[in-house]
């Protein structure tokens, strides 16, 4: 009996890696994960091939692709040269705007980029300074390592150098939320809050501000008129399994890009 159990265990150990290898693993940006999960579901329904998507943050996704702990990494910020190896490739699968969002009760509908930057630096502290009520502004930001935060800081000039190191210039009094969902909840529940989220995650629970008089819309991003925008990037090593490469091919196909557009993002093909 012991020999039979031992044989079955050995067979299980030999087949387990094969099962795992057939599953495409994807991890990284929670913003990219939103559309990636829909792409994965449709891909699975079409091909009967398994895809697992985990939202772990852009920095974690970049590392996962680099060291091979995930077949595909996801980033919603530009990637620094020292974060990749020569065999790691970047594929822009979509483009997305970052919406500066306020509570639906807030009368402010438009801000300049400079005003938003000053709010996040803590230089503008009251809504009355930008045409709103005489109430303190509650600044809400994403967590460190978030691709949305990294892109927002870069675009909005919210970084500074300290002893040769680049650090955030966002006010230390800012409240921090993990993920687009938490930011939406925090802003929706506070009439004096301002946050930033992926444009594809905007819904009726809050208002996306116009910036420099330009509405945060797909058409304005595609035309280059709305400036707070960033790429959605998939990362994959040259030696990634064929199953992972097939999934990327699907994402870049007409069907995949149609889903990208249906989910509120800008297609790249």
TrEMBL record:
<keyword id="KW-0574">Periplasm</keyword>
<comment type="similarity">
    <text>Belongs to the PstS family.</text>
</comment>
<dbReference type="GO" id="GO:0042597">
    <property type="term" value="C:periplasmic space"/>
</dbReference>
<dbReference type="GO" id="GO:0005576">
    <property type="term" value="C:extracellular region"/>
</dbReference>
<keyword id="KW-0964">Secreted</keyword>
<dbReference type="InterPro" id="IPR050811">
    <property type="entry name" value="Phosphate_ABC_transporter"/>
</dbReference>
<feature type="signal peptide">
    <location>
        <begin position="1"/>
        <end position="21"/>
    </location>
</feature>
<keyword id="KW-0732">Signal</keyword>
<dbReference type="GO" id="GO:0007155">
    <property type="term" value="P:cell adhesion"/>
</dbReference>
<feature type="domain" description="PBP">
    <location>
        <begin position="22"/>
        <end position="254"/>
    </location>
</feature>
<dbReference type="InterPro" id="IPR011862">
    <property type="entry name" value="Phos-bd"/>
</dbReference>
<protein>
    <recommendedName>
        <fullName>Phosphate-binding protein</fullName>
    </recommendedName>
</protein>
<keyword id="KW-0592">Phosphate transport</keyword>
<comment type="function">
    <text>Involved in the system for phosphate transport across the cytoplasmic membrane.</text>
</comment>
<dbReference type="InterPro" id="IPR024370">
    <property type="entry name" value="PBP_domain"/>
</dbReference>
<dbReference type="GO" id="GO:0042301">
    <property type="term" value="F:phosphate ion binding"/>
</dbReference>
<keyword id="KW-0813">Transport</keyword>
<dbReference type="GO" id="GO:0006817">
    <property type="term" value="P:phosphate ion transport"/>
</dbReference>
<dbReference type="Pfam" id="PF12849">
    <property type="entry name" value="PBP_like_2"/>
</dbReference>
């Amino acid at each position: 009996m012991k020999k039979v159990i031992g044989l079955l265990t050995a067979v299980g150990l030999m087949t387990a890696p094969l099962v795992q290898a057939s599953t495409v693993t994807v991890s990284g940006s929670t913003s990219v994960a939103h559309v990636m999960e829909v792409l994965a579901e449709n891909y699975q329904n079409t091909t009967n091939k398994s895809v697992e998507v985990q939202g772990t943050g852009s920095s974690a996704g970049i590392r996962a692709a680099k060291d091979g702990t995930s077949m595909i990494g996801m980033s919603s910020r530009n990637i620094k040269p020292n974060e990749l190896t020569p065999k790691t490739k970047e594929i822009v699968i979509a483009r997305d705007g970052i919406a500066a969002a306020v509570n639906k009760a807030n009368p402010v509908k438009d801000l300049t980029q400079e005003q938003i930057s000053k709010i996040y630096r803590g230089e503008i502290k009251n809504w009355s300074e930008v045409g709103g009520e005489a109430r303190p502004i509650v600044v809400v930001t994403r967590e460190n390592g978030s691709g949305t935060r990294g892109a927002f800081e870069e675009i909005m000039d919210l970084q500074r150098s300290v002893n040769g190191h680049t650090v955030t210039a966002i006010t230390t009094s800012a409240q921090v939320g993990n993920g687009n969902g938490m930011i939406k909840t925090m802003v929706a529940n506070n009439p004096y809050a301002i946050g930033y989220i992926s444009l594809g995650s905007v819904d009726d629970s809050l208002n996306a501000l116009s910036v420099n008089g330009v509405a945060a819309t797909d058409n304005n991003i595609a035309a280059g008129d709305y400036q707070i925008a960033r790429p959605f990037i998939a990362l994959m090593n040259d030696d990634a399994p064929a199953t992972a490469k097939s999934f990327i091919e699907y994402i870049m196909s007409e069907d995949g890009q149609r889903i990208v557009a249906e989910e509120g993002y800008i297609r790249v093909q």
